[in-house]
Write a structure and sequence with these properties.
The complex is a heterotrimer of chains A (about 375), B (about 325) and C (about 260).
Chain A lengths: L7 H28 L4 H10 L17 H14 L1 H7 L1 H12 L2 H13 L4 E4 L15 E5 L2 E12 L6 E7 L9 E7 L5 E3 L13 E12 L3 E2 L5 H37 L1 E2 L2 E2 L4 H29 L5 H26 L10 H13 L4 H14 L3
Parallel strand pairs in A: 1-4
Antiparallel strand pairs in A: 2-3, 3-7, 4-5, 5-8, 6-7, 9-10
Helix pairs in contact in A: 1-3, 3-4, 3-7, 3-8, 5-7, 7-8, 7-9, 7-10, 8-9, 9-10, 9-11
Chain B lengths: L1 E3 L2 E2 L2 E2 L1 H14 L6 E6 L3 H8 L5 E6 L8 H15 L3 E5 L2 H13 L3 E6 L1 E2 L7 E7 L4 E7 L4 E5 L16 E4 L12 E7 L13 E5 L9 H11 L2 E4 L1 H5 L20 E5 L5 H4 L7 E6 L6 H4 L2 E4 L2 H16 L2
Helix pairs in contact in B: 3-4, 5-9
Chain C lengths: L1 E6 L1 E3 L21 E3 L1 H15 L5 E8 L3 H12 L3 E6 L8 H12 L6 E5 L10 H9 L3 E11 L4 E8 L2 E7 L3 E5 L11 H9 L2 E4 L1 H8 L8 E6 L8 E2 L5 H15 L5
Parallel strand pairs in C: 1-4, 1-6, 4-5, 5-11, 6-10, 7-10
Antiparallel strand pairs in C: 2-3, 7-8, 8-9
The chains are: A alpha+beta (about 375), B alpha/beta (about 325), C alpha/beta (about 260).
Bound molecules: flavin-adenine dinucleotide (FAD) (2 copies).
């Protein structure tokens, strides 16, 4: 990876995302956070500008971007509001299984409508009984002629209440664990699908999260992605693609924290000078800057590996894990720089800490990332 | 030296008097200042112009000019300039004046500058000027090396010329050029802007803000009246918005709006850091506060220590008087 | 028909202004150049007019140095302009508005019978003379402070409003015409991601500076010289006004705002 700079094209994408983040997201961030409001108008505008289906190839009408491009955009969006960003990029997560496991006909029929008008999709993997251990999922898919019948419950589903399509992972035989998992897609209006109430969350309060229940929901066999038993691999390969942008999301949060803290430190005076002239504060800012910079480079590096056809499992796990831990440290220190004001909801930094926390948990918790990192690492020595 | 007249509703606009003042001051004692009027017949306005401190006036009046915009008049003005051959033409920096400036620069082949806030007295060699750029965030020193110059002055920046007791001689001419080319822009109507609704807080070039020193929601009208007289937006400290005297959309500061207007007037605001952060980048800050030690005076450019209930109404009256409304 | 838009790359609003080594101009180091609000309005207006008449196109022109000029042209193409012409200028300094108008007029070339839109003033020097100068050079009428342009029957007639001192003026005009647009009379559009990607690959016609000089001859020398570029001095505490009466304080303050600070409206 010799070139650390962005191309002119990437710069103009960054500029678009920054402008959108500043003018559409940032002004609503505090209000949506306070009320737990899902800003549908922001989602629609993001769709209109092409900021939503970033990973869908242009032949289906999507933006067809590589991962570095996506990371550049996601960081800018998350700088303004991580919660809205999670909802904006949820389509990438939910539609990636179709890109990975779908036939040309399935891709054409499912992806094209998402690019020709505004729709949301949700990725339904996590269950109340297990998140990290995806092989243990309990949602059952029972074959019935040319249909499957789906029974079970998914939880923490981003955009669940607003999606018109779900990609669902279910098992034909729980005993066989990951060997029996299948991936499906089904429209929200399928009989037997019910969406639970909105969860009340600590952070990412502009994003919408709910359970999705399936009770004898019938799906045509034609809606299965890949063969029976391909589901686990599709899920894991999906997360291999989407993990890196979570690193970018965390970097955006951290950069916002650093920006707020630096600007504040120059203006706040104690003991006759700006606090930015106290060395204790300078050291904090310097440490924060290191974390932000490292997060960004790790993220771009992982994205670049994957864009160049490599698996990038180690790099993307490192990027996601490091950047989200760093975002927590940086947001925490930003509050400290703000003193009592940082603890007040009227100031923007306490939200960053609440938002950063999720990045350590979802799309594979950081404990799981460390397991993956260690496994990849030790393999090289074994 | 030539000054071009601009009338509104048949009356001479104030910035033209300022232009005459500048012509007198930069031209020195011996300079002749000629007034040029090109427009619809306006005996009253031209009369006023002739008593505004000029040496003589050339007026080209024609009915069709009534509904034309500046570009139709520019040719006639340029024609006159070729004959009068002044060194400098001064225009009021109004929308009309600025529209005219660019055309005259080309038609009369002169150097041009607008928004001028200072002109050095004329001497042999280039004309030296100053003007604000980047919304007043920087100042530019400019040189016009040519033999002819068109200058549009920033309105309300220079003192107006004193009116003269005797009218300067007025030479009336019939229009010679085709006045209005077929199809040229024609004015078809005018709607006077409604007063009362001020500009948007974040974008306004002047903001007048009130703080707890105003004491009651009713008293806040004093702040609003000053804002109205200046065409300014109204802002407030959090003390005011928290008390519900005015909506929180008016709050200026760290957790309110950040503003950086040309002029910020803080009335009865102490200058807490949370307020200052939202307005210190204003170009010029004026503070009115009864406490001469209030921190707001540390960041202000001009301060008046005293009772706002006396000072602000007096200021509003003075602004109304100077702005002529 | 072809609608022409002239735009200028100017530092984005948040730029921290710094003088360059000569103290005569802005230091362009690290500055991001964009379409200013007035120019954005001109592009938006051109696109709206284009959308209201089948078969029309928008051509955008800009005068200035690399790479900033090409960048704003691409931005305009991403917004929907059909073709772009870069009139090259070798200098990084803020260009003279009349010279800009001469160079753009040269690029437009030939007897002009259409519509040119531009911002009513540039976002940096804010002179407001470009539209008038260009109109005079093209020998067509011009006006500034315009908003809300609409086609009117018969074809070729335009209606518009001008927001000037004291109110809104209604104007009708036929073509040819040069119009300077008032800022943000409505919400200018944002370029969509696929169009941004396409605009990166769009062909941009370039008119080299030597070609412009050859056409302009002695007129290629600007009529103004930028001598100094200064930032306001840091604040050192308020000048406190001493007064005999509230009226006296008010009169002193108004005079200072007019004559010293030069911010009186
Ligand atoms: C706001 C939000 C949005 C979400 N959006 C979606 C979505 O759209 N779609 C979706 O499918 N899921 C979504 N999730 C679910 C998310 O991916 C899971 O919460 C996550 O994978 C963790 O699963 P869990 O909550 O069941 O925790 P558990 O798996 O129960 O883990 C509990 C703790 O144990 C640790 N742990 C687990 N296994 C090990 C181990 N082997 N070694 C060491 N430590 C271990 C975990 O790291 C964690 O700290 C979302 C979650 C949230 C909070
Ligand atoms: C989390 C947090 C966020 C905040 N965010 C903001 C913010 O965004 N914006 C903001 O403005 N504040 C903010 N504040 C509040 C800030 O700390 C101050 O409390 C507030 O700005 C004070 O408002 P004030 O200057 O109007 O009132 P005061 O500080 O009470 O000052 C009133 C002033 O009026 C003067 N005065 C009284 N009578 C007269 C008179 N007759 N004539 C002339 N002068 C008179 C007094 O001398 C005094 O200086 C925030 C505070 C906190 C804790």
């Amino acid at each position: 990876m010799p070139d650390f700079g962005l191309s002119e094209e990437q710069r103009s994408l960054q500029e678009l995302a920054r402008k959108f983040a500043r003018t559409e997201m940032a002004p609503r961030a505090a209000e949506c956070d306070r009320l737990g409001r899902f800003p549908e108008e922001v989602m629609r505008k993001a769709w209109e500008l092409g900021l939503m289906n970033l990973n869908i190839p242009t032949e289906y009408g999507g933006s067809g971007l590589g991962l570095v491009d996506q990371c550049v955009i996601v960081e800018e969006l998350a700088h303004a509001c991580a919660g809205m960003t999670t909802s904006v990029i949820a389509n990438c997560l939910a539609l990636e299984p179709i890109l990975l496991g779908g036939t040309p006909e399935q891709k054409q029929s499912v992806l094209t409508p998402f690019c020709s008008s505004y729709h949301l999709a949700s990725f339904c993997l996590t269950e109340p009984g297990g998140g990290s251990d995806a092989g243990a999922l309990q949602t059952r898919a029972t074959r019935d002629g040319d249909h499957y019948v789906l029974d079970g419950e998914k939880c923490f589903i981003t955009n669940g209440p607003h999606a018109s399509l779900y990609t669902v992972f279910a098992t034909t035989d729980p005993e066989l664990r990951h060997k029996s998992i299948c991936a499906f897609y089904l429209p929200r209006d399928t009989e037997g699908v019910t969406v639970g109430r909105e969860e009340e969350k600590m952070g990412h309060r502009a994003s919408s999260t709910s359970t999705v229940r399936f009770e004898k929901a019938r799906i045509p066999v034609a809606n299965r992605l890949g063969a029976e038993g391909d589901g686990f691999s599709i899920a894991m390969r999906t997360l291999d693609q989407t993990r890196t942008p979570i690193g970018a999301l965390a970097t955006g949060i951290a950069q916002a924290a650093l920006d707020h803290a630096s600007a504040y430190a120059l203006k706040r005076h104690t003991f006759g000078k700006p606090i930015s002239e106290h060395q204790a504060i300078q050291i904090k800012l310097a440490n924060m800057a290191q974390d932000v910079h490292a997060s960004r480079l790790l993220t771009w590096n992982a994205a670049w590996e994957i864009d160049h056809g490599r698996k990038g499992t180690l790099e993307s796990s490192i990027a996601k894990c490091f950047a989200s831990d760093a975002a927590m440290r940086v947001a925490d220190e930003a509050i400290q720089v703000f003193g009592g004001y940082g603890y007040m909801k009227e100031y923007p930094v306490e939200k960053l800490l609440r938002d950063a926390k999720l990045a350590q948990i979802y799309e594979g918790s950081n404990e799981i990332q460390r397991i993956v990192i260690a496994r990849e690492l030790l393999r090289r020595y074994a | 030296m030539v000054v071009v007249a601009e009338l509104r509703d048949g009356r001479l606009v104030e910035p033209v008097r300022e232009a005459i003042g500048v012509a007198r001051s930069i031209g020195g004692a011996g300079a002749t200042v000629i007034g040029v009027y090109v427009g619809p017949p306006a005996s009253e306005g031209v009369g006023e112009f002739s008593r505004a401190g000029l040496d003589r006036v050339v007026a080209v009046e024609g009915e069709p000019f009534a509904r034309t915009t500046s570009s139709a008049r520019a040719r006639t003005v340029a024609e006159l300039l070729r004959e009068l051959a002044p060194r400098v033409v001064l225009l009021a920096g109004t929308s009309e004046g600025r529209d005219l400036a660019g055309r005259l620069a080309v038609e009369w082949e002169a150097g041009v500058a607008t928004n001028v806030t200072a002109v050095e007295p004329l001497a042999p060699g280039p004309i030296q000027l100053t003007r604000p750029i980047f919304g007043g965030r920087a100042t530019q020193g400019l040189e016009l090396p040519g033999e002819r110059a068109v200058l549009a002055l920033r309105p309300h920046t220079f003192p107006p010329a004193a009116a003269s007791a005797d009218a300067a001689p007025v030479e009336r001419r019939a229009p010679t050029l085709p006045q209005v080319p077929v199809g040229a822009p024609t004015m078809t109507g005018f709607t006077a802007s409604a007063t009362g609704r001020g500009p948007d807080l974040a974008e306004a070039s002047i903001v007048v803000s009130g703080g707890r020193g105003v004491k009651t929601p009713e008293n806040f009208a004093i702040v609003e009246a000053l804002a109205e007289s200046l065409g300014a937006a109204v802002g407030a400290s959090r003390a005011v918005t928290d008390a519900g005297w005015r909506p929180s959309s008016l709050q200026v500061g760290q957790t309110g709006k950040s503003v950086s207007p040309q002029l910020y007037i803080a009335i009865g605001i102490s200058g807490a850091i949370q307020h200052l952060v939202g307005m210190v980048s204003s170009r010029v800050i004026v503070a009115i506060n009864s406490d001469a030690q209030a921190p707001i005076f540390k960041v202000a450019d001009y301060g008046i220590a005293g009772d706002l209930f006396q000072l602000v109404p007096a200021l509003t009256a003075e602004v109304r008087r100077v702005r002529g409304r | 028909m072809e609608i022409v838009v002239a735009v200028k790359p100017v530092p984005e609003a948040e730029t921290r202004l710094r003088p360059d080594a000569s103290h005569a101009s802005l230091d362009p180091e690290g500055v991001k150049f964009v379409l200013a609000g007035y120019d954005e309005s001109a592009v938006e207006q051109a696109l709206l007019l284009k959308e209201s008449t089948v078969g029309s196109r928008v051509r955008v022109l800009s005068f200035g140095p690399a790479p900033r000029t090409e960048e704003v042209l691409r931005a305009a193409v991403a917004l929907g302009c059909d073709s772009a012409t870069w009139v090259e200028h070798p200098s990084d300094l803020l260009p003279d508005a009349v010279l800009s108008a001469r160079c753009i007029a040269t690029a437009i070339a030939g007897p002009f019978s259409g519509l040119v839109l531009c911002g009513r003033q540039s976002g940096d020097e804010e002179g407001g003379i470009f539209a008038g100068a260009l109109g005079a050079l093209l020998k067509v009428p011009s006006l500034g402070y315009a908003t809300n342009l609409r086609w009117k029957e018969p074809r070729g007639q335009l209606t518009l409003q001008r927001s000037i001192e004291g109110g809104l003026e209604e104007v009708e005009s036929s073509l040819p015409l040069v119009v300077g647009l008032q800022q943000a009379w409505n919400d200018p559009r944002t370029a969509k991601l696929p169009n941004i990607l396409k605009s990166r690959k769009a062909a941009i016609e370039k008119i080299p500076w030597e070609a412009t000089v050859a056409t302009l001859g002695p007129h290629a020398i600007p009529g103004t010289v930028r001598r100094t570029f200064r930032l306001p001095p840091p604040r050192t505490g308020a000048k406190m006004i001493r007064y005999d009466s509230p009226q006296d304080a008010a009169a002193q303050l108004v005079r200072l705002l007019r004559e010293e600070a030069k911010v009186f409206p």
